[in-house]
Amino acid sequence: MSKTTHALTPEMLLGGYASGIFPMAMSRDAHELHWFDPPRRGVMPLDGLHISHSLRKRIRRWDYLVRINSAFGEVVRACAERPETWINDELVEIYQSLHDAGHAHSMEIWQDGALAGGIFGIALGGAFFGESMFSRRRDGSKLAMVWLVDRLRRAGFTLFDTQYLTSHLASLGGVEIPRARYIEQLQKALLTPADFTAPPPVTPQLILQRKSQTS
């Protein structure tokens, strides 16, 4: 970890991701950002998402709406609404700039006209760098993950970087890989064309059908 000594720009952030490092603040009130390069990296295999029986039933129920990029700023703010967060004001501004430039995206789950859960991240080539997720209703972030992984696969992405592996991500199929293997996968992904916004909408039945075919 090394401390930044000057303001971070969107271009610097993309350059950091392309080289295998990522920035975080020590708290929401911190005025400095730090670059991180963990020896083991969390990734979500795009063909290894685990969908439990209860989550499968929840997906089929389809009492929610799935949207992308309709409330990016709100998703980022929701991810930061917790007692401790690494998302400070500087990162919020940078993520918004990257969203405006077409590099940052949000996967959103809506219920009764309100955000129930979501995930946001950065797309660079065929690599998607998941930044954070949140739930305001039961299974909100899990539903967002299911629909996000399906979209990434259909859009041509080959790497879903989750930075660290949490117990929540592990329960969904996330794994840790050594830094060297991560860099190898990253370099290949950066050369792979992908378009987050390209895939057309799908139904829960199609998502679960594709998942059963690859399980």
Secondary-structure element series: EHEEEHEHHEEEHEHEHH
- The CATH topology is Aminopeptidase
Q: How many β-strands, per DSSP?
A: 10
Binned strand content: 25-35%
Assembly level: single chain
What distinguishing features does this structure have?
215 residues; alpha+beta; Aminopeptidase; 7-stranded mixed beta sheet; 3-stranded antiparallel beta sheet; 8 helices; 10 strands; 39% helix
Structure description:
The protein is of the alpha+beta class and 215 residues long. 39% of the residues lie in helices and 26% in strands. It contains 8 helices and 10 strands. The protein has helices at residues 10-19, 53-61, 72-80, 89-100, 140-155, 167-171, 179-190, 204-214, and strands at residues 2-3, 22-25, 33-36, 40-43, 65-68, 104-111, 114-124, 127-135, 159-163, 175-178. The protein is globular and about 45 Å long.
